[in-house]
Amino acid sequence: MPRWALLLPLAAAALLGASLALPMNAAIASACAVALIGAVIAAVHHAEVVAHRVGEPFGTLVLAIAITVIEVALIVSMMLAGGEGKAELPRDTIFSAVMIICTGVVGICLLVGGLHHHEQSFQLDGANSALAALVAMAGLSLVLPSFTTSSDGGTYTISQLTFVAVSSLVLWAVFVFVQTVRHRDYFLPPTNADDEDIHAKPPSNGQAWASFGLLLIGLVSVVGLAKQLSPTIEAAVAAAGAPKAVIGIAIALLVLLPETWAAVRAARADRLQTSMNLALGSALASIGLTIPVVVVAAVLLDLPLVLGLAAKDLVLLLLTFIVGAITLGTGRTNLMQGAVHLVLFAAFLFLSLVP
Q: Which residue numbers delimit the Sodium/calcium exchanger membrane region domain (predicted)?
C-alpha cells in the first residue's frame, strides 16, 4: 500500500476530530477543505483496491452503498438540528444528487471517454434496468408529492410516506439482487466479461480488508468534513443572496466527489461499464436508501418533510430522464452524448442560482 494512501485518511480523520474540538475559523476551514480533497483521493484508491478484489459489479456497489449510507447520516443529523429550510433539505440533496450524477458525472465520463477512445460501449440491459428503476423511484419520491391532494405544499401523508419508503427500498433491493445475482452479466464489461480481473493480479484478502477499513475512514472523514464546512457554505450562500437549494447542491457535490473521480478514472481507462455501474447505482442508492431512513426519522420524531419539487425542477428532471433514455439507448457512446449531458448539468447549476 502506498504510504500516502495510509496517511491521508488518518490525517483527514485527525483533522475532523480537531475541527470538532476547536472553534471554526478561516484557517481551520481551509485545512478542512484540503483534508477533504485528500480523503477523496485516498477513498477512490481504496475503493479501486476493494473493487479489484471482489470484481464487478460488487466493487462499485461497495463504494455506492458506503457513500450513500454516510450521506443519509449527514442528512438526518442536519434534519435533527432543525432550523429554517431543513424540511426541504432531504429533497434538495436527493434531487441534486440525481441531477449531478445523471448529467454531470455521466456527462464528464462520456466526454472524457469519447475524447480518449472515440467510442465506448456498455451493457444496455443493465443500464435499462437501472434507468427504469431510477425513473420510478424519482417519480414516486420527488414528483408525485407536488400533485397529490391529501396533503398540501409538496408533502405526503404518513400513509403515503410509508408506501413511498417501502416501494423505494424494495425497488433498490430488487435492483441489487439483479445486479449481483440473477443477471450479474448485465453489469460486466461487454468485452472479456468472463474474466474482469485479467489486467492485473487481484490484491490479497488482507490488503482488501485493510483498504476497506481505510475506505470507511476516508468516507466518514469526507462527510464529516463536509458537515463541518456546511455553516461556511450556508454563510457564503446567504452572503451571495443565492437560493437555499444551493446548500443541498453543495452538500451533494462534496459527498459525491469520491464516486465522481472513480467514475471518470474508469472512463478514461476505457472501462465505461464501471463508470455506468457507479453512476446509475449511486443514483439509485441515493433514493432507495435515503428516502426510507428520512421517512422513518420524520415520522418517529415528528419532523417536517417536504419532498415535492417545484415546477422548474420537475421540468429539469423530466428533461434529464428523456435525454438519458435517448443518449444511453444504444449501448455505444461518444463525446456528443457527453456534451449534451454537461449542457443539462450547466443548466441545472445556472437555474439553481438564477431560478
A: 32-180, 211-353
